What we know:
alpha+beta, YaeB-like fold, six-stranded mixed sheet, 6 strands, about 35% strand, globular
Amino acid sequence: MRFSPSPLRVYEVYVERAAQRDLRRLPPEEFQRVVAVIRALAENPRPPGCRKLSGSENDWRLRIGDRRVLYEVDDSAQAVRVMRVRHRREAYR
């Protein structure tokens, strides 16, 4: 899945298959909330509240309630790749 950029967006957001599966399993209200945050990553790939994952150069996490969005930012290609959307107890396994 790919969200193509609008004229105001700087980064392209790619959602890996594993993240797509994670998104399909969410309840509808939570799905809408998470997708809105993922789309916002196109304009600001490092929003307030995001954290860099230790042991990696480009991996970040974003907290949305009990969910964690794990993603990678590639500044040279201006791309954000969402790898997983997991519950907090399963996100870092």
